[in-house]
Write a structure and sequence with these properties.
Blueprint lengths: L23 H14 L3 E5 L6 H10 L3 E7 L3 H12 L1 H17 L3 H17 L4 H14 L28 H10 L3 E4 L15 E6 L22 H16 L3 E7 L10 H5 L4 E9 L9 E9 L2
Parallel strand pairs: 1-2, 1-4, 2-3, 4-5
Antiparallel strand pairs: 5-7, 6-7
Helix pairs in contact: 1-2, 3-4, 3-6, 4-6, 5-6
Length: about 300
């Protein structure tokens, strides 16, 4: 099926901190000339997250892409993407069972107990893939604020959210996303390793959406690994961008603007001084400090 023949647009099936739905237009606007003129483009996302940009690209430009490679270091998220690609019917069947049992719990306390039961099953990581994926989707849609957070033992520990009637899943969207993912290579490795897994004979467009550099101590939803994703990782990513530039690959990167908090913070301006830096308006709703929700600026940086 040609995705362009589908009237409905595919959308992310998970809530994910840093999702790019609101910045989709300026991101795609920057990419559009490259996407429009090439018929053999390799598209790479080393930090795919909830996939807002990916799904838009696949929906509108899949016929122009030679290869698509996505990656995440989060093994739970990668397993879920693969389960949706390879066995959407099995995933939907598992989600329907979870949804039914959750809705049959009549009291708020009973719903919380069922949530904690599913969370315990997820944390054992012993179930077949479709169930592990279903657990993650269920927890994502019923936990507090849609957060993904694990402790030092890799145990998901976000508490139950207080939603009257969470949707859990959208079957039509899941099937649509699964069709889009059929020819997508899904990796689970450090972002630097992706370079060795890409065909350099084709024109390559990279989109980087790394864990954002926190704009405050309370806004650091950037757990890339046990060691986090601090300034050293940001610098390591910039060095990869330099390598790609030297190989004539095109790349676009998004990140937080530290000047939202400290007006003279030149971290990214200095780090990427040899490239194109644009500030775009955005909104953030996930922040423990209500005063830091609302309109902010984010960065789009590219070598084209």
């Amino acid at each position: 099926m040609n995705p362009e023949t589908t009237d409905r647009l595919a959308k992310p099936f998970l809530k994910w901190a840093g999702g790019k739905g609101q910045l989709l237009e300026p991101i795609v606007e920057r990419m559009r000339p490259l996407l429009a003129k090439s018929n053999k483009l390799t598209y790479v996302e080393p930090f795919v997250g909830s996939g807002a940009v990916l799904f838009h690209i696949l929906q509108h430009y899949q016929h122009k892409l030679a290869n698509v490679v996505i990656n995440e270091l989060n093994a739970d998220l990668v397993l879920t993407y693969r389960a949706l690609r390879d066995n959407p019917e099995g995933l939907i069947e598992a989600l329907q069972e979870l949804k039914t049992e959750y809705q049959q719990a009549e009291s708020a306390e009973a719903k919380r107990a069922y949530f904690e039961y599913v969370r315990s099953l997820f944390n054992k990581r012993e179930s077949e893939n479709r169930w592990q994926a279903a657990f993650l989707v269920f927890l994502n849609k019923t936990c507090f604020n849609g957060l993904y957070r694990v402790n030092s033992n890799n145990q998901f520990n976000v508490p139950h959210g207080k939603y009257k009637n969470p949707s859990i899943y959208d079957e039509e969207n899941l099937l649509h996303v699964s069709r889009l993912l059929q020819d997508v290579e899904i990796l689970n490795t450090d972002f630097e390793n992706v370079l060795s897994m890409v065909n350099h004979d084709e024109q390559v467009l990279w989109y980087f959406d790394p864990p954002y550099r926190p704009i405050s101590k309370s806004s650091g939803f950037n757990a890339y690994a046990k060691g986090g994703f601090g300034d050293e990782e940001q610098i390591r990513l910039k060095k990869l961008c330099d390598t790609l530039d030297g190989m004539s690959h095109h790349w676009l990167l998004s990140n937080s603007d530290p000047k939202n908090v400290v007006s003279d913070d030149q971290f990214f301006d200095e780090l990427y001084k040899d490239y194109n830096i644009t500030r775009v308006k955005a909104r953030r709703s996930i922040n423990s400090n209500a005063q830091r929700r609302g309109q902010l600026f984010e960065l789009l940086i590219s070598n084209f």
